[in-house]
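Lab channel / #folding
Pinned by the channel admin:
"Please post every new chain as: sequence first, then the structure tokens as a reply. Keep commentary short and put observations after the output so the thread stays searchable."

First post following the new format, from NK:
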Amino acid sequence: MPYVHVELFEGRTVEQKAIIAKEITESISKHAGAPTSAIHVIFNDLPEGMLYQGGEMKKKK
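Reply from TO:
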């Protein structure tokens, strides 16, 4: 039972997340052979100031 964690800056709608989750689920099922009912997609919305790369804060675009 695969668990896929997706971390994005805040601001995506429920509809956008549903599309992303569906496409991730279909891809994992196709390439890993897992049944879609066993695949879990978990979203973590990051507020600005919570993601740093190379010591520099990443900003929403």
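NK: The radius of gyration is 14 Å.
TO: also worth noting, The mean pLDDT is 95.
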